[in-house]
Amino acid sequence: MKKLAVLLTTFILSSCASYSVTEGEIQDYLDNRATFERTVGIKGLAYANVKFSNIKVGIGRVADDRVSLDAKSQAKLMISGQRPQDIAIDVSFSAVPYYNKEEGAIFLNDLEVESLDLTPDELTNFAGKQLLSSIVEMVGQFILTQPVYRLDEHDAKQSLLKTARPELLIKNHSLVVQM
């Protein structure tokens, strides 16, 4: 009888289980995990050292089915024969969220650059423009390969959802993982 009660309870919970992940939760998750420093280009010719550490999250703000990410990066651009130049790069992306069952995490797909601002705002040489393109691509790849949120297996509701085949929806500026 106890087994039947447990099975019935599990079935009822699984048929109506959902968990909302707010912008704040995703922001906290990324604040603790989304930093990196990399070098792109060819040292001695043209390269940039990039530090990326600040992402701001919006859910359903650019479009109903997209997550927006405003990323701030600092780069030190070094081109042979020129003095090093510090560049601030503010890039806004939007992407479609999806749930990866194997990892129990929410990732982003279909990344689009919405806006790009540089300080200083002009790169006059070809090498600088090529490095900027590589920097934006590198930041985009980082965003696509890292989860924006991972379900917590120590939370009963999240653990239950993690083992199922949940659907991911955007509602009221939150990501809703539901069965």
From TrEMBL:
Transmembrane segments: none annotated. Residues 1-19 form the signal peptide. It comes from the Bacteria. Keywords: Signal. It holds the Pfam family DUF1439. InterPro entries: DUF1439. This is DUF1439 domain-containing protein. It comes from Photobacterium chitinilyticum.
